[in-house]
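Quick bug: protein-serine/threonine phosphatase output formatted oddly.
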Amino acid sequence: MNAVYRTDRGRIRQHNEDNGGVFTNKCGQRLAIVADGMGGHRAGDVASEMALTHLQKQWGETEEIQTADEAEEWLKTNIEQGNILIHDHSKKVSECEGMGTTMVAAICTDRFTSVANIGDSRCYILNEMGFQQLTDDHSLVNELVRTGQISKEDAEHHPMKNVVLRALGTEESVSIDIKTIIFEDGDLLLLCSDGLSNKVTEAEMIDILKSETDLDDKASTLIELANNHGGEDNITLVIVEFLDGSKSGDGL
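Here's what came back:
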């Protein structure tokens, strides 16, 4: 399994409130994370960093994940703990009041991948079945699309596009979407913040992910394209590629 992580401030924002990375547990299994912080005076980066640091620490102490049930329970338990940490901090520190972070996280084993998300950071998969968004945005416009009030095309340019309905740390408890898929040789996972998905079309993502370049080049090209399309937001992504042992390189 190979993986690459990239984050970029973008062309407009003064600070990068995104965080992310790819981490290994005691058995070398991967946990990929993208977190997009928000709220308060630079408090968004505090929220996303707290979420990332908590999961990274817990994952580093974790033994081998053997089943999908174990992976889903790990994600649920540790993300809920992270929510409490962020929420408590926001109540104690006035500068951090109201802060929160979106999150998409994927536990990647050699047999399956379990994906959890809160907010509008996304996970896509590219495989023999095509290109598919695995996560649902917890956003106002997605709810309007789901209930038939606006079209998917209208949602792309809706003035309330950035309103998130669910985030880590903004409430005492959080509802997390979790699902497990089979991850096979040659499949690619793309985790990203909305700084990428709002600026790069799915058709452009497919062309770049299918290109005959390595993961580093794919990641750099995606970020460059998001910036060329305006780069109004921070841009963060992780690409994970599953390869059988005879083909895998060093990766992360």
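Actually, after a second look the formatting is fine. The chain has a mean pLDDT of 92. Closing.
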